[in-house]
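S2.1 Query sequence (Protein GrpE)
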Amino acid sequence: MEDEILKNEVVPEEEIEIEPEENEEIDIDDDKKVKKIKEKLNICQEEKAKYLDSWQRVQADFINYRKMQEERNAEFVKYSKQEILRELLPLMDAFEAAVGHFKETEGLKMMLVKILKENGVEVIETLGKQFDPHIHEAIKHIESDKPDEEIVEEVQKGYNLNGKILRIAIVKVSKQKK
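Output structure tokens follow.
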């Protein structure tokens, strides 16, 4: 039974010491072989560390690439409708002009406005706002008591698509009387 316990007992490798028997001598060639093997082992471990580091970097780069690609795809989907929506804007202008003459078109205009809003299109507010060349195009200066560069008339509505300019607003701006 004691033999079974000894067989099952695990002793860490570091604790095992092999001593030469009295008659046995350590061969000098064996000592050199052990040193060479240890050197090769160290070299292998260094190479392993380099390969592991390289692999981890490539994996991190791939993860970053995937995230960037997902963001690009989301951006593409978000703005892929831009051209078709831009082509609908003249139709919106025509509906607004028609509403002034025919009240029956009001329902159609509301439907079109709803479709545009659902697709991320918003009207750029202009009247009473300060002129901004990034979102407005001034076609005329009108003398007025209002502050310089304040928008006094909107000739054509401007629109944003998900926060980006879809079409700039065409406006008339004030110029203070002298």
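The first helix runs from residue 2 to 8. The helical segments are 2-8, 28-79, 82-101, 106-118.
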